[in-house]
């Protein structure tokens, strides 16, 4: 993205998959989502310009956890009631079978707009084309 997302300093993020996350393998999802982190996502993740997919509500970028190097996916949504509902529903389902796990959620500013940034597990290069097989050679729709 064009620069730092976020404006407020904050605490450190546990590594993806640490017990504080909602979607531990085999663990049930939380009953509701917690408040998003307010510090810059770039404090915890190195963002790539590589677009993994495009969705109706936002795009998905490749990112890497700074401490562990784990590859993840970052979905960017402009903050709105609809976006918050999407995040809440995904958070509740996270950890279920066939559901991409949410590792964390941030609320940051980007281009003077408040955004929700959803850090999700990376599913690999072969999953995306199954979502949008009509357009060969392009990132999948998420």
Concise structural overview:
Belongs to the protein kinase superfamily. CAMK Ser/Thr protein kinase family. Strands 4-5-3-2-1-6 form a 6-stranded mixed beta sheet.
Question: Can you offer a commentary on this structure?
Answer:
This protein is mainly beta. It has a domain at 41-132: 2-Layer Sandwich (Phosphorylase Kinase, domain 1). It contains 2 helices and 6 strands; from the N terminus they run E-E-E-H-E-E-H-E. The chain has helices at residues 81-93, 128-131; strands spanning 45-54, 58-65, 71-78, 102-110, 113-121, 140-141. The protein has a 6-stranded mixed beta sheet. A hairpin with a 5-residue loop joins strand 2 and strand 3 (71-78). The longest helix is centred in the middle third of the chain and has 13 residues, at 81-93. The radius of gyration is 14 Å and the shape is globular. The protein starts with 44 loop residues before the first strand and ends with a strand. The relative contact order is 0.24. Mean pLDDT is 74; it is low at 6-32.
Give the SSE map:
Layout: E1 45-54, E2 58-65, E3 71-78, H1 81-93, E4 102-110, E5 113-121, H2 128-131, E6 140-141
Parallel strand pairs: 1-6
Antiparallel strand pairs: 1-2, 2-3, 3-5, 4-5
């Amino acid at each position: 993205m064009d620069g730092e997302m976020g404006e407020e300093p904050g605490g450190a993020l546990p590594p993806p998959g640490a017990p504080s996350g909602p979607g531990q393998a085999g663990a049930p999802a939380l009953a509701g989502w917690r408040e998003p982190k307010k510090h810059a996502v770039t404090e915890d993740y190195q963002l790539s310009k590589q677009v993994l997919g495009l969705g109706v509500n936002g795009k998905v970028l490749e990112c890497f956890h700074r401490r562990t190097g784990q590859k993840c996916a970052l979905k960017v949504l402009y903050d709105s009631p609809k976006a918050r509902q999407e995040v809440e529903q995904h958070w509740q389902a996270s950890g279920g079978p066939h559901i991409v796990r949410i590792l964390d959620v941030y609320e940051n500013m980007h281009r003077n707009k408040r955004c929700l940034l959803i850090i999700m597990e990376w599913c690999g290069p072969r999953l995306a084309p199954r979502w949008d097989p009509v357009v060969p050679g392009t990132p999948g729709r998420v």
